[in-house]
Amino acid sequence: MITGIALVCRAAIEGGLNEETAFTLSDYYIQQIEELGNLKAILRLTEEAISDFTNRVHGLNIEKYSAPITACRHYIYNHLYGDITLEQLAEMCRLSPNYLSSLFKKEVGILISEYIQQQRVDEAKKLLVITNYSISDISTWLNFNDQSYFIKVFKKYTGLTPRQFRNDHSSRHPST
Fold first, then answer.
1. pTM
2. Is 133 exposed, middle or buried (0-12, 13-18, 19+ CB in 10 A)?
3. How high is the pLDDT of residue 21?
4. How many C-alpha atoms does 26 have within 13 Å on its Cβ side?
5. pLDDT tens sequence across 119-172
6. Which class for 95: exposed (0-12), middle (13-18), buried (19 or more C-beta within 10 A)?
């Protein structure tokens, strides 16, 4: 089952999943498998892991956008832990920042900055559930200026603080 998780992880990366995310998930599931004592629990967790990886890759490919917007979405997803600017995205797409901004809003329905925030909050939600990293570390890694701003943005998109979210969702996964 551990080998299977590793293979699914590799396939997910080939399908476009961010490497850091894929390896974090893989490590989490492998650690959980090693701690389980019976075959039924191991099979259930392996099924959950395969489903998790599959859903994440599917989410990357579910909506079809123009080539520049697809490239921007993939760049954003693969650089959530770094600084992302409109200028970088525009240069990558060989479009003016203003044109890219209006095209993104037209196709996706929200501003690029809002999209980046949403993606970072989605990543933070995953980290809060599958890891024990501190909220401060998660906010820093996901490039939020300070923890209070991160909490404000997180609450805007989820209705909960990061701590409330972790507490509400931690029962879904066995504790490490």
1. 0.65
2. middle
3. 86
4. 19
5. 999 999 999 998 889 999 999 999 998 999 999 999 999 999 999 999 998 754
6. middle
What's at 65, amino acid-wise?
Y
**Residues near 156 by beta carbon (within 8 Å), at least 6 away in sequence:** none
Position 61 pLDDT exceeds 80 = no
DSSP symbols for 44-60: HHHHHHHHHHHHHHHHH
Q: How far apart are CA 9 and CA 22, in angstroms?
A: 6
Distance CA(133)–CA(150), nearest Å, equals 15
8 Å CB contact between 154 and 162: yes
